[in-house]
Amino acid sequence: MDYRFPRVRTKSLKDQAYEILRSSVITGQLEPGRLHNEKDLARGLGISRTPVREALLDLSKEGMIVFVPRKGIMIREITYKDINDVMELRKVIESYIIESCCSKLTPADLKGIGKIIEKQRALARKGDHKGYVEADREFHLFLASRTGNRQLLHVMENLRDLLHFMAIKAIAYQDRMDQVLREHKRICTALKNRDQKKAKEAMFLHLDTTEKTLWASMGADEE
Question: How crowded is residue 5: how many other Cβ atoms within 10 Å of its Cβ?
C-alpha cells in the first residue's frame, strides 16, 4: 500500500518560540508585572512575529501571560490565591501518587530517588537555588512518573511550572533547602519501608510547609 503522510519535520518555529518563552517566564528571565513588546521578543528570538504571537497565545491559555490591548504582553504575577489553588491541587494529586506508586517502586526506583536527594544535598552545599529547585521538581515528577499515568504527569508538570519562579525565591528563604532535604528523606524512608500511611503524611507535611514558605517569601518581598 502506498502511504502518503505529511513529511516529518523538526520542531516548528512556533514550538521553538513557545519552549524558549515558557522557560523564560518560568525562570523569571521575563519579569512578572512588566510590559513586554511582542516585536522586541521576536527580534530577540531572531524570527518573525507570527510564530511568536502563536506561542504567546498558547502561554496566555495556560495562564502564564496576559495580553494588554495596544500595549503588549505582561507576565502574570503570582497571587496568594494562586499559591493556595496550586498547592491544594498538589496535596490531592501527590497523595494519590504516593498511594499509587508505594507498592510499585522497585529497588532501582528507590535508588533513583536516593540519587536525586544526594544531588539536592550537593546543590544545597553550593547554594545553587535554581539548580536545587530543578532537582526538587525532578524528585516529585519522578514519583509521578512511577504511577504510569501520563496525563497525571503532564498535570503535575504544569502545576510545578506555575510556581517555579516563586519556588526559587522561596527556597532561599530561611534555609529552606536543608528543611526540604529532611522532608524528602522522610518520604523516601517511608517508601522504602512500604509504609503508605507514613509516606502520605510526610508528603502532606512537606507540601503544607512549602505552601507556608511560599506565602512567607511573598510577604517578605512586599515588605
Answer: 5
Helix H or strand E segment including 97: helix 80-101
Domain residues of the chain, as ranges?
13-75, 80-222
32: DSSP letter: B
Q: Which residues of 91-116 are buried (b: 16+ CB within 10 A; e: fewer)?
A: bebbbebbebbbeebeeebeebbeeb
> Of 135, 139, 141, which Cα lies nearest the Cα of 157?
141
For 42, 70, 90, 101, 182, the CA distances from 207, given in Å and listed in that order, are: 38, 40, 8, 18, 13
* 156 CB burial (10 A radius; 0-12, 13-18, 19+): buried
CATH superfamily of 80-222: GntR ligand-binding domain-like (1.20.120.530)
Digit-coded pLDDT (tens) for 172-181:
776 789 999 9
Which helix (H) or strand (E) element contains residue 74? strand 72-75
pLDDT in tens, 60-109: 988 889 999 988 999 888 889 999 999 999 999 999 999 999 999 999 99
- CA-wise closest residue to 127 among 77, 168, 187, 83: 168
Task: Classify domain 13-75 by CATH architecture.
Answer: Orthogonal Bundle (1.10)
Q: Identical fold at 13-75 and 80-222?
A: no
Residue 202 CA to residue 189 CA, distance in Å, equals 10
CA 191 from centre of chain: 23
